[in-house]
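2.7 Reproducibility. Because tokenized structures are sensitive to small changes in the input, we list the exact sequence used for COP9 signalosome complex subunit 7 isoform X10, including any N-terminal residues retained from the expression construct. No trimming or masking was applied before prediction.
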Amino acid sequence: MDIEQKQAEVIDHFVKQASVLKGPALVPLIVEATSNPSLFAFSEILSVPNVLELEGTENSVYVGLLRLFAHGTWSDYKSNADRLPQLSADQVLKLKQLTVLTQAETDKVLPYSQLMQELDVTNVRELEDFLINECMYAGIVRGKLDQLQRCFEVQFAAGRDLRPGQLGNMIQTLSDWLSTSDNMLLSIQEKIKWADGMSESDKKHRKDVEDRIEEVKKSLSLKDVIKHIG
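Resulting structure tokens (single pass, no recycling of outputs):
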């Protein structure tokens, strides 16, 4: 079973559970979801009405916890730790895995120094072990560890939940790309048309030259006949 199919089944399980639980009963479910080793997307759980009803209650911090795991990073947690539940070791691991995915969204070459700072890792060996054992073996990223250049070259990274407003930006980017593609296609078609026209012109020019050669040949032949007669 590939990672996408497995994650879809895990998401479906948690969404169904969240749909039948209410109030404080959702807290252990949210903790379980944010600790699950196979789950890396949380927006569907976050959108369940029963979960959103926790807003404004004593358990509203768990909605914030889900938002953190949907869109945030380890640095975000450290900046807001006083307003969020304390994380377990499994949740810390999960959030650091998600942090790597966030870094890989925008950069395909990740300097070790940047990753060590984002993950609170103190040495290269610890960082490489984390990338290999907790990220690549988990199937969420693929890439090459470049010890000489001290960087991680990303070849694939699983996508995270879309942040608020990100979908609109993506649609605009795709729209701009389509517009650019249309303009490029039109330009290519015009060049093909021009090349076809040049080809026809070349053919006509060649035909004119060949006709002139034939005329010269005939003229020369006619002069030879006249000369012999004379």
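The chain has a mean pLDDT of 87.
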